[in-house]
Amino acid sequence: GIVASENDFIQPDMPPDEWMLSVHCSEYYKAFVQGTLDDAMMRRTGFSQRPDHDSLVRRTKLEVAGTVLTARLALMHGIALHIGGGTHHAHTNWGAGYTCLNDMAIAARVMQREGRAERIMVVDCDVHQGDGTAEIFRNDPSVFTLSMHCGDNFPFGFTAKSLSYLGKDKSDLDIAIPMGTGDETYMRLLRRHLPQVIHKFKPDLLLYIGGIDVWEGD
């Protein structure tokens, strides 16, 4: 298997602020860290104001650090797995859907800035569209975003958002599938699109969000 011993598990350190600021605007990031987001912004994340806010910040930062570490290890060894992360609803200026910082977007930016990868693909197979990742890289040809998700699920709404924070955003490739789609149809769609996109874009690094919530019993 992939894991041979406990030595194959590696814990991340707390990340520097500059990583988060490579993706998120400073006003939002500082307010999140300091616990000064207004009630509306906090509710949008899915969390409420709480006395243990520091623990939420710590957990969120460690998720980011874990994804960056995983990307580095994948480039060294060919594959690596992070058991956390996938916080794809966090946008440049706000959080949503129980995600406050976009770990995938931050990891992509860090890999580029460290010179480890230039062209990066984010393949998001969570049941929910990766709207935050799509927004962050909307005008960036160096990062290709693919989201294969349930069309009738959060974030609700059409591709064109009725408000800046409502509805789905537009990935480089969105594959919206109906609720109740079976395994054969799901895999057929993925096999039809993914190899073509990889061949055309030729990424140096592929970041994959498995999204266990695609399981029918979730």
Automatic annotation (TrEMBL):
Molecular function in Gene Ontology: histone deacetylase activity; hydrolase activity
UniProt keyword Hydrolase present: yes
Domain Histone deacetylase: 7-218
Entry keywords, A to Z: Hydrolase
Presence of keyword Calcium: no
One Pfam family linked to the record: Hist_deacetyl
GO terms (BP aspect): epigenetic regulation of gene expression
PANTHER family per the UniProt record, alphabetical: HISTONE DEACETYLASE 12 (PTHR10625:SF19), HISTONE DEACETYLASE HDAC1-RELATED (PTHR10625)
This protein's name: Histone deacetylase domain-containing protein
